[in-house]
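INPUT
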Amino acid sequence: MRKLIAPLALSCITLFPAHADEIKLEKFQVDTSVIAVERGVDAFMNACHGCHSLKYVHYRDLADFGIDKDRITAWRGDSTLDSAMASLLSDEAALQSFGKVPPDLSMMVRAREGGAGYLYSYLTGYYLTPDGKTSNHFFPLTKMPDALEISTATDPVKRSRILEQAHDIVSFLFWAADPHEAERETLGYYVIGYLIILTVLLYNVKLQVWSRLKA
Amino acid sequence: MANKIINWIDLRFPLTSFIKHELTDYPTPRNLGYWWNFGFLAGFVLMLQVLTGLFLAFHYKPDAAIAFDSIQHIMRDVNYGWLLRYMHATGASAFFLVIYVHMARTLYYGSYRAPRELMWWTGQGLLLLLMATAFMGYLLPWGQMSFWGATVITNLFRATPFIGDQVVVWLRGDYAVGDDTLTRFFALHYLFPFLIIGAVVVHLVALHSVKSSNPSGIDLADKDNIPLHPYYTSKDFFGLGVFLIVYFIVVFYFPHSVLEAANNVPANPLITPDHIVPEWYFLPFYAILRSVPNTVGGVAAMGLSVMIFAFMPFLDRSRIPGGGRYRPVYRIMFFAFMLDILVLGYVGYVPPTSKTIAIGQVATFYYFGSFLLLPLVSKAEDRWLFKRGLPTKIKDLIASEEEEKKKRRQR
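OUTPUT
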């Protein structure tokens, strides 16, 4: 509601420095089809899951969404179907390697202003500085290494494959932040459709009742 | 058989006479516009909040260690938990929107004038209760904005003379906002709606004693009154349908517009968000708080900015009824005041810069100025309008109001 009222006011409510405001975010169209999310989980398991957990997402949720059971079995390894998609990296080990515990990604799309667009821009925003270090356009202070290796990719085919991967990962994370989104949008049509019919009927009731007054 | 049962009840409880007195025979002015729908809508949203809140409380855990997780449990695992939570969160915003329209209507049409001062004051009390309830409810998700919002606002009570520090500890139950604060805010967030229901009953008893105001600003003759049921019940239900369509469009398609991104990060006392903003319905008051350079002064100004509405029956010195409808100067003041509130809301929303602070200070002056100058302006306007010659229609209104007043005094 607040955004409806103050649409012009661009926000800077992030826990991290608001560099996202200074550089234009990439336009991002989420694709939450089962195929795209499945590709996203695959890319996520390869590139992110080594360090990042999804403590609110369970392997069973993937199966409920319609993702191939055999692939889920391959991803989860020894974990049960009911367990959360927790990373194997311990907090202590993470602190030692990165100086910071990698944040849980279950809500990440909803936890940053700019949402999916910000995440996509961030993932693909790595570049090499003139002195050969890796930095990020959108979050220069990040402790995360360039997991998708876009900063060193020069081959256009490889680059576009990395962009697709980032797209799939963000689509998956978008789904993970609010798994009931599709259900919500479908239910909305029925509820609002019902209400429109009801309101038209109520308006006619009102007209009929009030018409008695004119006599 | 049905008649027999009703007769049996009527001998023991005034059921039929109550329905007759408060519904089917209850007189309402026939000229009420759709702005008069919002009282009914406020009552409806109250019930909606109580019901969705009850079901949320079945699954919520007011414990700092697991509160955030329990919200995600509601969002992901509880059947239609996401719907309950989005309805409750959107409902809070809808409640304020409806109440603000309800208040704006009262101000525009001068409905706070005699004999409806008690309606206005009980309404003012309801607004305070609603604000407290909303504020405490916002802590419960235990996200970053919950935590820091509660920290900032409870900290304001340090401005209390002499015992400020003790008051803050007393409110928080600890030296900082923490588990004790969360648990007590949950208990109070559950209690306050019942206080609101009680105050609504008082508000309605007062209403049914003085009856609804209407755009003319005076009490109409009996022939111009119609029964509440079925006329206004049918109109209210149509209005409710329109309201629900808008409400559910937000619930189903824009639910994140009422939820802060920063509040999807668990509360962390060690990391302060860059920019702490309250919910949209507190923004104008927050802007007034920030406009005063001194903390105590800012808190006093903010408190006064909410409470000053209560003085309206004394500040408005005009003899002409109907508020903005028949009074051009008052009408301009009303719309300028609405604009001023929007400006304050914007200033409260953006991170403070020297420019927005200056705009905020001007808007704050204007805010209080429009109340403090009202006695003079309304008196001058009154004199000017009388000198110019009132239309006979308004003269008749004033004459009949005087007559009403005389009758009331005799009673």
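end of record. The first strand of chain B starts at residue 27 and ends at 29.
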